DNA sequence: AAGTGGTCTAGACCACTAT
DNA sequence: TAGTGGTCTAGACCACTTC
């Protein structure tokens, strides 16, 4: 059935993805683009668009002169580092029912590193939001978000404390978070962090130290996240350059 | 000047990238696609191809109905996690002169985890290659590669020990490494690792535990890498899904 | 209403890989 | 040499944002 929205390209992509996941292609070889175009009744351009998106996701590889092939090992990955946006979504993809605990919502002076990355004066205040994400009631991710008070006040946020930060900023502050730049930092959890994540003090963890930018590339939020390494391990695809 | 190779698309991309880096666009706004196409004497499709690649790199964002914009904060990143292929290249991008120390090339029985990820029998042998990457003579990255001996023997590799592993596999073994799947693991360096990286025992580090796959999606190499966190910090762009 | 990026077509030719 | 993916064109129309 041909309709608009989702686009033809997205429909073709979904069709191919389903056949890929159900092992519908012999020996992991995807038919020639011209054949797919004829079979699906769309132009080769549309097929190429859809294949390009699947390649971008790592699901397939294309080799000029040779063909298009399914990358089976890639399909088995659960938590892909490149695809994180909401932590609740991550935990859901991971196969569990996520929930959120709001531990702290309060206003205070920005510390030096936060003031630096958010371009604030030394005496500015920030709203600090601390949350714990759980999967099936086990704590997995601890996050601390810091947002300048000239963007939002604690009274405003407390009415929406269960809302993800990026969603709140978009709907209540007119600041669409467009991307985060994240540093990956190894840490040993201190007493308080370890307590909240339910592990021993000194446990090794990966943390993200990151800044969120809005649609105008202005820094809006400074976030730090700590992960239970034993419950959630992030994976990454490293590909040849120019792919 | 219009020539083939590099493709028109790549030439347009390079042209735009140069103007982006030299702040050649007012207020970070890139001209409309139709205008660029007319100015450069190419079709709008070619311009869109080039813009799509820049968007994929994170350098720009496109918003339907609104325009195309430069993501200035992204341009300042040195070591991007998504773009790692060769560690020598990483160190070079990082602004230093890289060099390599081959610490060990020897054959031995595969340990359990290596046998598991490479699909080997319990009694198989692997070639173990341990290397240290330095920038301006400071050790920064320590890697251990394990390759099944039915693919390569130590005698073969020793003649090429300065060659990157992925290059050796391609040129000498006919196995093109197409991608790695990497786990990100926080560790405390043991005595030997710390000594080689020139830090104290117990220092925190990020490590990659990864498997390299060839053009037929067969596992070919099991690698573990340790990074001097104080000298090289990987950064990551987290974007909204569907971008 | 005007202007922007997004989708889609049909067709031509090129570059590379297999055999 | 046949078959594959890669590049490129010209043109039409749609969806969304901005004014």
Task: Describe the fold and architecture.
Two copies of one chain form a homodimer. With 243 residues, chain A is an alpha+beta fold. Chain A folds into two domains: 8-76, Winged helix-like DNA-binding domain superfamily/Winged helix DNA-binding domain (Arc Repressor Mutant, subunit A), CATH 1.10.10; 87-227, Chorismate lyase-like (Chorismate lyase, 3-Layer(aba) Sandwich), CATH 3.40.1410. Chain A is 30% helix and 33% strand. The longest helix of chain A is centred in the N-terminal third of the chain and has 14 residues, at 8-21. The mean pLDDT of chain A is 93. The interface between A and B is large, with 49 and 49 residues. Chain A binds a DNA duplex (19 and 19 nucleotides) through helix 3.
Main β-sheet, spatial strand arrangement of chain A: 4-5-6-9-8-7
CATH superfamily of the largest domain in chain A: Chorismate lyase-like
Oligomer: homodimer
CATH architecture of the largest domain in chain A: 3-Layer(aba) Sandwich
Molecular shape of chain A? elongated
By CATH, the topology of the largest domain in chain A is: Chorismate lyase
Kindly state the percentage of residues in helix of chain A: 25-40%
Return the domain count of chain A: 2
Mean pLDDT of chain A: 93
CATH first level of the largest domain in chain A: Alpha Beta
Percent strand of chain A equals 25-35%
Q: How far apart are the first and last residues' alpha carbons of chain A, in Å? A: 33 Å
Order of helices and strands of chain A: HEHHEEHHEHEEHHEHEEE
Sketch the major β-sheet of chain A: 6 strands, antiparallel
Enumerate the spans of chain A where pLDDT stays under 50 for 5 or more consecutive residues.
none
> Pair with the most extensive interface?
A-B, 49 and 49 residues
Structural class based on helices, strands and sheet pairing of chain A: alpha+beta
| Helix count from the secondary structure assignment of chain A | 9
User: Rg of chain A from C-alpha positions?
Assistant: 22 Å
Tally of strands of chain A? 10
């Amino acid at each position: 059935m041909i309709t608009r929205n989702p686009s033809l390209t997205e429909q073709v992509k979904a069709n191919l993805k389903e056949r890929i996941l159900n092992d519908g292609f012999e020996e992991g070889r995807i038919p020639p683009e011209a054949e797919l175009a004829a079979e699906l009744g769309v132009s080769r351009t549309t097929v190429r668009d859809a294949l390009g998106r699947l390649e971008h996701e790592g699901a397939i590889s294309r080799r000029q002169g040779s063909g298009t092939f399914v990358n089976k090992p890639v399909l088995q990955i659960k938590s892909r580092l490149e695809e994180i946006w909401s932590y609740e979504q991550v935990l859901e993809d991971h196969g569990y029912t996520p929930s959120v605990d709001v531990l702290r919502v309060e206003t205070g002076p920005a510390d030096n590193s936060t003031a630096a990355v958010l371009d604030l004066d030394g005496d500015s205040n920030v709203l600090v939001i601390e949350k714990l994400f759980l999967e099936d009631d086990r704590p997995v991710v601890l996050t601390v978000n810091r947002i300048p008070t000239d963007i939002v006040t604690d009274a405003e946020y407390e009415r929406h404390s269960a809302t993800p930060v990026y969603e709140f900023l978009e709907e209540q502050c007119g600041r669409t978070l467009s991307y985060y730049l994240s540093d990956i930092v190894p840490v040993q959890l201190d007493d308080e962090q370890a307590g909240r994540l339910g592990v021993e003090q000194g446990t090794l963890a990966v943390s993200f130290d990151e800044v969120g930018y809005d649609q105008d590339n202005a820094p809006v939020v400074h976030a730090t996240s700590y992960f239970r390494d034993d419950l959630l391990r992030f994976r990454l695809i490293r590909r040849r350059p120019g792919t």
